[in-house]
Amino acid sequence: MQIILLHPRFTHAKSVTLTHRHLMLGVVAFVAAVLLMTSLLFYFISSHAASLPAPLRDMFAGAAQGDEAQKEKFLKENLALMARRVGEMQAQLMRLDALGERVQGLAGVKPTEFNFKELPGRGGVEPMDSTSSRDLTMSEFKALLDAMSHDVERRADYMNVVESTLMSDKIKSKLLPTSQPVNVSYNASTFGRRLDPFSGRSAMHEGIDFAAPIGTPIMAAAGGVVTVAEFHPQYGNMMEIDHGNDMITRYAHTSRLLMHVGDIVRRGQHIADIGTTGRSTGPHLHFEVRIKGVAQDPHKFLLAGANQARLASK
């Protein structure tokens, strides 16, 4: 870059050549001058703030207060957001505690073994190096709240699935014929092949006989719906209860039936009385368990119920 200088005092025109180096030095000198003037102005304002004219002093004070107001507004907005998230998490935790107590009851876990309302014990060694621990930043704390909220929601969904499964198992267990229908200590005849008391020939006995005096109460072995309540030439006064899943129980040779078709019965409910009606040699209850029409050994169901009751009493 060439600059030509003209002046009446000059006998000849003079020229000055500026290189890129000269231009860079000029720019650097200009920036340095601006920074120096800014520093001097800041020093002058800081050291003579009290003696400055009121309008100028208020202008600088207003700028500083504006920055503080922006920071305070930012903090208030973030604190309000985090307070709302904490409130949502508290509501989620209360729901999770209630759900946990329901699952605890369904699972048979005693409150003394696990209490949802008590905080678990925690501890650890204090860090020896102070640089290994530090305060959380605002963004880190917000990310931690988001992660905890997501984790609480995921655990609540999991607990809902567990509760549904336990509830289904609980219902199924109540519908299994595991309760002894007559309060006697022995069976007059067991399940399987035996000599028929009338013909003397070997025949299949498809149930268990409970011998007891006439009028002894007969209880439902499980909950269900009465599907048959009638007189049968072989079984006498007979009742059948449907427990779902193609499972029924049959109560035969009774002296009287206390339930009717369509009645809903619960486990242990008095449904009939011991008798000797039908093909019978004396007062007893003929008790059968059938799955899809096939006779099952009732003893395995009653034994499972007895074992469960023994474990529950411990």
From TrEMBL:
Q: Which stretches make up the M23ase beta-sheet core domain?
A: 204-298
The record's top EC class is hydrolase
The EC number of this protein is: 3.4.24.-
Question: Membrane-crossing residues?
Answer: 23-45
Q: Does the keyword Transmembrane apply?
A: yes
Presence of the UniProt keyword Hydrolase in the record: yes
What keywords is this UniProt entry annotated with? Answer: Hydrolase, Membrane, Transmembrane, Transmembrane helix
In the record, what terms sit under GO molecular function? hydrolase activity
Q: Pfam families in the record, alphabetically?
A: Peptidase_M23 (PF01551)
Q: What is this protein called?
A: M23 family metallopeptidase
Source organism per entry reads Herminiimonas aquatilis
